């Protein structure tokens, strides 16, 4: 009986060590991406109109920051929404446009990493997306919860809308069955 108890204790310590290492590694990747994004913003040409028209990010590149004043967070935005990109920060869906281009901008992130306190977000809260060619403020006007496989969120909207998604429920353990979606519109 003592042997089984010791084995369970060792297994628990190993699992905690693996989890701790993964969390440390993710935090390091996110910090590096934030530095990369801030450098790109700072070192970009200031011809806003030309930069807006010509802007394109490479897959996996941290190119912008997303500030969430309500949560006191500034997060890196990385091109792509696959697991590798989302490990570095908030992912930008490559098929969507960039701020200032007049259509849907879609960002995604994990609820247990970059959007850890996203459950505190409410209608009326703001996002500030800082790009190499300028800063854009959006106000949340609506939210919805959709099943994880609902792709109708990705669509032409006929106007500029920042759509930010994450897994839902926020406190769910494992792969969450739904997605929490915010729709934020430019603040004039």
From TrEMBL:
This is Sortase A. One of its GO terms (molecular function) is hydrolase activity. SUPFAM superfamilies: Sortase. It comes from the Bacteria. The keyword rRNA-binding does not apply. Pfam families: Sortase. Keywords: Hydrolase. CDD domains: Sortase_D_1. The keyword Hydrolase applies. PROSITE patterns: ARGE_DAPE_CPG2_1. Its EC number is 3.4.22.70.
